[in-house]
Structure formats: C-alpha cells, structure tokens
Amino acid sequence: MGTPVRLLEVSGLKKFFPIRRGVMRRVVGHVRAVDDVSFFVEKGECLSLVGESGCGKTTTSRCILRAIHPTAGQILFRPEDGSVVDVAKLSKGELRPLRRQMQMIFQDPFSSLNPRRTLLDIVAEPLVANRIGSRHEQIDRVAELLKLVGLRPEYMRRYPHAFSGGQRQRIGIARALALNPSLVVADEPVSALDVSVQAQILNLMLRLQDRLGLTYLFVAHDLSVVKHVSDRVAVMYVGRIVEMAPTAPLFATPKHPYTEALMSAVPKPDPRLRSQRIVLEGEVADPANPPSGCYFHPRCRYAVETCRTETPQLHEIQPGHFVSCHRAAELSLKGIVV
Amino acid sequence: MSDQLSASAPILSVRDLKTYFFPDEGIVRAVDGATFDLYPGKTLGIVGESGCGKSVTARSILRIVERPGRIVGGTILLQKNGSQVDLAQLDPESQEMRQIRGGDIGLVFQEPMTSFSPVHTVGNQIIETIRLHHPVSKQEARERGIAAFRSVGIPKPERRIDEFAFELSGGLRQRAMIATALSCGPRILIADEPTTALDVTTQAQILDLLRSLQEREGMTIILITHNLGVVAEMCDSVVVMYLGRVVEEGPVDAIFHNAKHPYTQALLRSIPSIRSTARTELPTIAGSIPHPYNRPAGCPFYPRCPDFKPGVCDKAEPGLTVVGDGQAVSCFLYEQT
After folding, report:
1. Is B281's Cβ below 8 Å from some Cβ in A?
2. What is the Cα–Cα distance from B273 to B259, expressed in whole angstroms?
3. pLDDT digit string, tens, across residues B178-230
4. What are the pLDDT digits (tens) for A16-36?
5. Cβ separation of B200 and A225 shorter than 8 Å?
6. Is B170 close to A272, i.e. CB distance below 8 A?
7. How far apart (Å, rounded) are the C-alpha atoms in residues A300 and A140?
8. Rounded Cα gap, residues A185 and A103, in angstroms
C-alpha cells in the first residue's frame, strides 16, 4: 500500500443531544452520545466501530457524513485533490462536492429503498442529483454498477419488492458506489440479513474494496462479522473509544476489560467450546448520566479505586494499539485463540 | 429417535406436523411435515433462516396460529398427568387449551417491546396471567409476580412491577417477559428468538438466566433461533429446518461436528466465526431462500444444493432417514433405495 495516507482523521468529536422538559422545553441535561472520540482511517483500509446499542457508533458515523451536525471536534477529510478539509466546519453548500466522495450503505435494505421507484431510478439517483452524464450514459453506468454487485442489468426496470433481502442490499451497495466514492460508511450492512446471505454480502464488500480501492468505515455490533472484514477495530462504550487496535492483536490480546467481556459473550458456534463466559453484571451506563471516572467501572471485574475517580485517557500501549484503561499494562486479559 | 438423549419418554412429541396458510394468493406451506421429540429437562433448538417455519411450529404447538393459517395434519402429543393429549385436535379456544397455554407451556417472544402492552404496567400483565390460571386474590397474585420478577434477577422487583414496558431496558424487559411466561409454573418453555433483539452482553445474561432456571426447576426448553452460536451454547439436541421441512435433527455435537445434510453443512461453513481467519472469502450458499409461493418441487433445497442430483431431488421429497445415534437427515444422499 506504500506509505499510508490518512483519508479521515477525527479528533475530539462530540455530539450531545439536549434533553428538554416542561412547557418551556428547557434543556435539563444532555445525552452525551459521542463524547470525545478520536481516530483515523487510512486510505484503502477498513476500520470498524463496534459496540452495543447506544454506544454512539452510529452517531459517530452520521457526524462524519454530516447527516447530523457535531457539537464539537474536527473531522479532517482528504478529498481526491489531496487537500485537507474539516468536514465539521463546512456549510451545506461547501459540503455538496464532498458528499460525492463519502457514501453510505444502510442497515435495512427494506426501508432504505423507495418501493415506488425502479432500480434504475434508485441507482441513478446520485448521478441525476449531481447532473453527471446524459440519460444514456446514466443508464450504461447503472448497468455497469448492477453487474459489479452481481445483479443482472436487465432487472433495472423492476421495483425493489421483486428482490430478496440480499439482492436489495446489493442494490444499496450499487447506489453507494455510483459516484466512485473514496470513503464508504456501512452502518450494520448485514445485520438484517439471513446467515446464508450475510456471507455473500460480506464477500462482495471485500471484493469491491480490493477492486475499487475503497476505504470502509464499518459500523457493526457483531464481533464475528467485524473480525472478518476489518483491518483495524475501535471498540466503543458509552460514547467513547475504549480500545483501538489492528484486528489480530485486538482479538488475540485485548487490553480493555470491556473488549474481553464483549468477546467472551459472543456465543461460539461449536458445542465443544461451551466457554466459561464472562457475564457482565448490570446494564450499560446511561449516556445522559454517566458514572464517575471510567464509565465501565461499575461493571468491570478488575476495577480499583482509581477507576472510580479518574477518567482514563486513550493511550498507545503497543505500536498501533490504543486503550483507555488504568490497569491496561498490568492486566493480562483473555482473547480469542485462533 | 434421539433415544440416546434420555431414557425417559418424551414430554412432547410432534409427528408430521403440517401448518399451512391459505391467503387469497395461494397456499403457503409454512410447516410441512415437522417431526421431533422433546425430552424432559433438556433443551431442544429449532434453527433455520427466515421463512423456515420455526416460529410457526412454536405457534402451532400453542395453537395460536392466526388465520388464514391452520394445522392441516399431524399430531402434537403432550404428556399430561400420565396420559397423552393431542394438541392438534383441541379447539384453540377451549378451556383445556387455555389451561395448557401458560399452565403447561409458556412462551417467550422475540421482541419484548411489542409483546407487552404499552398501556398496562408489566405488573398488571403478570397479575392477569397468574389470575387466569390460579384462583388467587389480586394481592396474592401481585406477591407471586414480585417473587417471579425476583427469581429472574430483576432488581427492586417491588418497584419495577409498577412500571411500563417502555420504562425498562431491553434486558429487563426480556427478564419480565420470561417471568411472566414462568409465573404459572409451566413444564415447557418455548423461547422464540429470546435474545435476537438484545446486545451480546445482555444476551449472555439472558442465556445464563435460562440455563440456571432450567437447572433449578428442571424445565424443558424449546429454543427457536437463527443464531448457530446460541444453539451451540445452549442446546442438547437440534432440529434444522428449511422452508417448512426438517432437513436434519440430532444431538448438538453431531449437528456441529458431523452434519450430514448439505444445507446444514453449508450453513455452518458460511458463518463468519470469531475464530476464523480474517478477510478470506467465506463459502456461501448460492442463491437465496425462495419466496414461499415459488416453493420448488421435490426437496426444497435442491436449487441451492451443491449435491443436487437431477431427476431425483427435483422429483420427490426425501423423508427423514436415521444416520446415526439419534441423528436423522432428510436427503436423497442418505436414502437407501
């Protein structure tokens, strides 16, 4: 890959949602959905954001696409011309040319496609919106895209209802690729699909990445899927990144107790491995009213006094392996032995 | 079948169960000849992808299949007080069936948010269930409800019982659901995708709870899921379904380590495992699950099957053939002719 270029660099990203009460809709507090998140994505790699519901992984991805406006922080994106722009600061008009380079694949292939429009309309929409090519060229491009994702171009006059979940997800992928984006944000792209179809879509996404040199920001909760597609993984808990590392070391030698618990909680498809699972007590902390110190300490079996009082910072414990835990250096946690 | 699993007699035997739906557009054979046994104190997993008929099987056992669906054939024999009752023959509205529902067989639904009423407190709903089955006062039923909440690990049950379902977190809601299903002491618990809507750490909590309840009460569980990991962790025996048919059944170890049916084998290969090598091409199953109206003739899996034998598989439907200790498979590869 040569010297890695950082396509995306997020630093200090925050997104707070106000909680309003009463007749005056007074702001009584904030849900700290994303709370000081920093990471980068290199060109051509796949970074996964993984965590449980409410951890802020989707909010993070939506901030990057500016589907919502972040409260604070920098989102540096490197467009194709090599310049660097801060997406968080741009106005709507300034964003418009950039949007062509960042596209999204959605979770639910049933609600993300307009049932009243044909495949041609759906996949050509980004081209039409950006006034690219004549109608003829657009139709040719749609045919090419459908072939690329493994659908027959003859189907382009049909409506989404004629297709299965997996095929619909292929349509969503074709639409995302219509403008030759450099960054593709995929928010839970396979979690709504059946097991036998999941594998097809994952294979397709990996093939497309190799072929088109795509960069993926992959948002998912399923660790097996994440392990399969990612080069690097960032684990989030209550709006923060608790651990970030290349995939292999993260799974083999996790450094954060939450990562360890999360991995041990995944049921392994082998009855001979009925594991001694770590069952976390209690519930995920409330992002409107997080605990003191480390947000994970009430559920952490390794917690000590410092964890209750001091907030740990994300620091590099080994080259490329970042963790935010006071005891990261002394603990030896159990990973997944391959 | 499955004699190895338990010396005792099955508590529930399903034989050639057929539940069809008759909408205006045609016939959907949602369950088409399901056969399996459930042994006391064990966990049976029914696994399959969407449309395989696993949920309709559960609903058929409880006789809560909604129109235009109905049971068109087969028997569902429940051991009750030393004799057998064929649930398939009972009137779904009858007093006896209403007693069995909840009293003998409890059900846990997939999505606790939609299966609880949003306008009644969870306490109201568990009290209603208890009073349907036992002639007790409201106060007494409330006490039992609180005890049931406590037994499934809901903290501060005296307070939680007066809350609405939307005030509880996903995990607590599912615990309340399980408490409600167990409040009348059923011998069999049917859990239909009990953890699908939950996060992995919450899923681990709920699976742990089901296992400890089983140890404590000797309960029998039917676990319906599409998650093979959950099956491997929880079940003693497994029934694999595809398009309404049982394609393979057997002890859990045999299913995961010595699967015979091409579908079971392919399904196991296609899941990305947390232990597998990253970024490699996953083996896939070609095509997708057919639409229920376009069900292929013959073996329902043949259009996607790597071992398809033309002239055989697309002509007739294979029956279950015993291939090992309690393991049976429905495939022409194993049928002696």
Report:
1. yes
2. 17
3. 999 988 889 999 999 998 878 888 889 889 999 998 998 899 999 999 999 99
4. 999 888 888 888 888 999 999
5. no
6. no
7. 56
8. 6
